[in-house]
Amino acid sequence: MSKEHDPGMTVIVKTVTRLTVGLILLYGIYIILHGHLTPGGGFAGGVIIALAFINLDLAFGGSASAKIFSKGKTGVVEALGAVMFLSLALIGLKYGGFLDNFLYSDGNPGQLVSAGIIPLENIAISLKVGAGLFGIFLTLIILQKFESEKK
Amino acid sequence: MIELYVLLGLMIAGAVIAIEVKNLLSAVVAVGIIGLALSIIFLLLKAPDVALTQIVVEIVAVILLIRATLHREIALKSCGTRPFGAFMGILFIGLAAVAAIVTFNSLAPFGAPLMTVSEFYPINAIAGTGAINVVSSIILDYRAYDTLGEATVLFTAVIGVLTVMRSVGKKKEEDLQEKNE
Lengths: 151, 181
Description:
Chain A has helices at 11-33, 42-60, 71-95, 118-150. By secondary structure, chain A is an all-alpha fold.
């Protein structure tokens, strides 16, 4: 195993990343889904999920996450999040107004399924924020590669 | 409150170091100190939502800054001393400090709400929206328009970055230049 041609960081970093990246992803999902019960929400959870993918990329070299989540997919997922948020807002028009919380009578306060459309909006924002930030990160990496190839 | 002043001093020191230091990596680390100290301050002031968002966004920002600035040949230019500019800077900082002291002495004590509208949310939020987290119920129900605007700002920023830094168009342009030559 030649260390010069091995992309990414050392074996220690790779092993720790392999162990922790799933936990980071799980923590992000927890923050998103419990956004209406505990501190956190769509924005913070989305950034944590983006950080899990960034962690993979930094530890295993430039394009380790491309198999899971390519640069084209980030644009699609981000647009999906925006459309989901807007469509939730527009469905509210039928029930009383733009962004009306039309589901809030379902579930008791304190349960996971409660608070109407707030968890759904959290999921939409997390998709948008996570995919957007990860797209920016991938763009910067690809630009860097492009510049180093030019030299 | 003494720990707040220690953290504020740390933030000011980080800002001064970030401006003055010559090494780019050291400057980025000093910028990171500001954000992490700010997140601890939010935690001490009992705002865990903002603290969580601040710490994760700060980490992403530091990683992006490191990836964007390191290994690039960014020319560092040293500017000469400008006595008039330094004098005016100190003068205006002093004026701003005097104005800030006068303003903050006339405000309500720290932590006391300025407007009566803020008393409505802690009382009515759980019954009105069903969300235990009052902050979440405000940003996604009572003030959802603000969240929509914030999402639009981020969407526009991502579109801008992807457009300015696209690699497809640049490659085509270079091919055209080579053909012309």
